[in-house]
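Input (structure):
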């Protein structure tokens, strides 16, 4: 079995893990498709991330729980106040399911032996330098949210949220502090991935951007919902792309210095051949 086949099996079989959500909501096929996309985003962790299973599990669980669940649900409750009663049960149940899925994906990667060799030597920023970078990355999300969120709202989703402006105005400056907090949490969630991936910097930047988008709603919004019509879900998929991809890429760009490649060992020429 080639490495490419094993990687494909990881994505397809890993996608089945997310059909656990279909037990309560239905739409098995859509959850499988969404799961395949998320598993594909998790694949670089299994291939080029930490070599230990428990470390891969921790990286996957952080991304799934913080970005895929907490940040997504908190944003939904903000504009769908009627869902507040489901927030705590949803967070508890969702956390349990995502932790189980992270464990299954980490074990699946080990069983399929998708881990790949790498000649990249990681160079990580020390904590004193990383802290301001994390704060700056979180702040960048406020800018992306303000610019791209406003564009999508004005031209595509305004009719679905007739009271959104009033809700934001009622929160005042706390709304932007809240978005900064979301940006910080997503940056912290993807930080272990950025620091552990044995990939060149530019590839890490792409992986982080796609991961924050797909896990942060780009995949789950494919599943039909009682709260959104199809056109609304599609608009939000592209809205999240315009906000989360730049956030993930900014976080990786700020926190991941240019890596060095390990020098190839010198070949020693036998003395007999030199005579």
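Output (sequence):
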């Amino acid at each position: 079995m080639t490495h490419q086949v094993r990687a494909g099996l990881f994505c397809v079989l890993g996608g089945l893990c997310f059909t656990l959500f279909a037990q309560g909501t239905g739409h098995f096929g859509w959850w499988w498709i969404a799961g395949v996309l998320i598993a594909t985003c998790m694949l670089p962790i299994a291939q080029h991330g930490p070599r230990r299973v428990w470390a891969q599990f921790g990286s996957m669980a952080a991304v799934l729980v913080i970005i895929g669940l907490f940040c997504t649900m908190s944003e939904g409750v903000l504009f769908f106040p009627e869902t507040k009663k489901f927030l705590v049960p949803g967070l508890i149940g969702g956390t349990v399911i995502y932790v189980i899925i992270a464990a299954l994906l980490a074990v699946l990667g080990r069983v399929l032996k998708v881990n790949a060799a790498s000649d990249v030597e990681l160079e990580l920023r020390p904590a004193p330098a990383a802290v301001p970078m994390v704060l700056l990355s979180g702040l960048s999300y406020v800018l992306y949210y303000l610019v791209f969120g406003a564009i999508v709202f004005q031209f595509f989703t305004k009719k679905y949220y007739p009271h959104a402006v009033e809700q934001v105005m009622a929160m005042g400056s706390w709304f932007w502090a809240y978005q900064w907090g979301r940006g910080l949490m997503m940056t912290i969630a993807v930080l272990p991935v950025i620091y552990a991936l044995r990939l060149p910097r530019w590839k890490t930047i792409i992986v982080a951007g796609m991961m924050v988008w797909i896990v942060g709603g780009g995949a789950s919004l494919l599943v039909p919902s009682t709260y959104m019509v199809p056109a609304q879900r599609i608009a939000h998929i592209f809205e999240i792309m315009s906000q989360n991809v730049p956030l993930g890429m900014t976080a990786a760009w700020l926190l991941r210095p240019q890596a060095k490649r390990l020098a190839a060992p010198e070949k020693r020429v036998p003395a007999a051949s030199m005579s």
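Notes: The CA atoms of residues 150 and 206 lie 25 Å apart. Residues 3-261 form one domain.
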